[in-house]
Amino acid sequence: MILVDSQDASPIYEQVYRRIRTLIMTEALKEGEQLPSVRSLAMELSINPNTIQRAYSLLEQEKLVYVVKGRGNFVAHNEEIPTMKRKQFTERCQKIIREAKQMGLTSEEIKELLRQCVEEENDRD
Amino acid sequence: MILVDSQDASPIYEQVYRRIRTLIMTEALKEGEQLPSVRSLAMELSINPNTIQRAYSLLEQEKLVYVVKGRGNFVAHNEEIPTMKRKQFTERCQKIIREAKQMGLTSEEIKELLRQCVEEENDRD
Amino acid sequence: MILVDSQDASPIYEQVYRRIRTLIMTEALKEGEQLPSVRSLAMELSINPNTIQRAYSLLEQEKLVYVVKGRGNFVAHNEEIPTMKRKQFTERCQKIIREAKQMGLTSEEIKELLRQCVEEENDRD
Amino acid sequence: MILVDSQDASPIYEQVYRRIRTLIMTEALKEGEQLPSVRSLAMELSINPNTIQRAYSLLEQEKLVYVVKGRGNFVAHNEEIPTMKRKQFTERCQKIIREAKQMGLTSEEIKELLRQCVEEENDRD
DNA sequence: GTGGTCTAGACCACT
DNA sequence: GTGGTCTAGACCACC
User: Fold this and answer.
1) Which residue among A25, A85, A104 sits closest to B26, beta carbon to beta carbon?
2) How many CB atoms lie within 10 A of CB A39?
3) Can you state the angle between helices C38-45 and C49-61, rounded to 10 degrees?
4) Chain C contacts of A66, Cβ < 8 Å?
5) How far is CA C29 from CA B27, B41, B97, C65, in A?
6) What is the pLDDT of residues C40-67, one digit of tens each?
7) How many angstroms separate the first and last alpha carbons of chain C?
8) Which of A85, C17, D14, D107 has its CB 3.0 to 4.6 Å from that of C55, i.e. a possible disulfide?
9) Taking chain D (125 residues) in consecutive chunks of 10 residues, what is each chunk's mean pLDDT?
10) β pairing state of B65-68 and B72-75
11) Which residues have a Cβ under 8 Å from the Cβ of C67 and sit 6 or more positions away?
12) Selection from A120, C106, A38 nearest residue B94 by Cα
């Protein structure tokens, strides 16, 4: 369910964090469900427990996970997930549009290219 | 023409590289034009010449710049720039759309959010 | 009468301790009254008897509870409770006011903020 | 300027974090000023560099500090500091008032005790 | 068994 | 020299 890509330039703790974050947002991990323990997941991925610990701490900070000392980490109740998903998508869009403009693409070109992307993706469904 | 943001998390050589890359793609720097020398640019930005050298090397690797030993760095001829710009933008779009779908956003939601982004960006102009 | 919040970061034994302490100080549990037995309370809250035992020990240390071996735990006689409550509150206040001054807040600001706090709390009643 | 109290139950990284946070909020450390390097501070306090690192990361997350890789940590520009100070004070007040009510103190008593505290503190000036 | 903290020591990227 | 990441191994509190 969780993989570490040693080719990926981003730090391992961040890969693990992002992966679990996605699993929670897609509800592959449901509210109240227990995450694998720090140690067991570390063993499974053959990495250091501290590295997993760090990923779990990030998830806790974002209130996606809550910790019960001595028992484990659990998926938190979070009704803002749909909002978060939209916000995340919007931010990324704005970023690439801004960069495209900086590259000298006109608003019209951008609009047209976006339209094409959406259509293509719909055709694939 | 080139600025370094010390608050930016990305390394300085990459900031310089990206900035010049943009200048070339927007044709603010035209084919055959000479780039500032490694030393003079380093002085101007008060950073280490090694850092500039590294940025120039990246540009050379991408064939956006060619070097004439003893004379300097020059903007290369590259007729594929407009195509590159579009292709790059399209690829990024497809990537974030695909990820959004994986997150469980519907095609309709995505379409709507994209429309909003474009509008907002136009309003900022 | 006693609840355990698994989301609360503080250890369970402390939650139980604080809760019973409050019940005694508010005289919801009166002098001489018997506390539930370690085992029965553990069963009721579905937690380990050791955890309850630890909470009771803290209460005993503070002389809020006394133990009769083989019979159970009882609320102690303690005529200083009202004084304790005021003293505790006053000490805390002084502490945060002193810290606020250290942060550079003026006496006037502090007075005003305190007034607001009191009002808001009264509105909630 | 920074001290670690081995008696204090709170983790070392948090003590360091809180201490520097206070220094910034009181402007003992001013905007743009450089913090001691991770390694040098670790040496000075005879603790592990990782522990300092962690404290600095917290400060960065709160945007009180920004990092320039390869150069060091610097106090960030943050115009929200006065607001933060008030908010922090208000939260603490609310907390102790709420707890006092839970203990059975009446609103009148609380008001009166607060008034006394403020007066005493003013007398000390 | 669980998570939380800390140390010691290493390697990397950046300046 | 700087910060950032990771490992290995330890100890503690809690359940």
Assistant:
1) A104
2) 11
3) 130
4) 7
5) 81, 78, 61, 11
6) 999 888 888 999 999 999 999 888 899 9
7) 21
8) C17
9) 87 93 91 93 92 93 89 89 90 90 87 91 80
10) antiparallel
11) C56, C60, C73, C74
12) A120
Whether the Cβ atoms of residue D104 and residue C84 lie closer than 8 Å to each other = no
Kindly determine whether the C-beta of residue A104 is less than 7 Å away from any atom of nucleic acid strand F: no
Neighboring chains of D (3 or more beta-carbon pairs < 8 A): B, C
Q: What is the pLDDT of residue A70?
A: 85
Q: Is the sign of the CA dihedral B80, B83, B88, B94 positive or negative?
A: negative
Which pLDDT value is given to residue D58? 92
CB contact under 8 A, B85 and A92: no
Tokens of B55: 């940025």
Task: Determine the distance between C11 (CA) and F12 (C1') in angstroms.
Answer: 14
Nucleotides of chain E touched by protein CB (<7 A) = 1-10, 13-15
pLDDT in tens, C64-95: 899 998 899 999 887 878 888 888 899 999 99
- How many Å does it take to go from CA A57 to C1' F14? 18
Both tokens assigned to C20: 């019973």
Question: Helical H runs in B1-125?
Answer: 12-25, 38-45, 49-61, 81-102, 107-124
Residue A96: closest CA among B117, B33, D10: B117
Q: Which element (helix H / strand E) includes D65?
A: strand D65-68
pLDDT tens per residue, range A73-109? 999 988 888 898 899 899 999 989 988 888 888 899 9
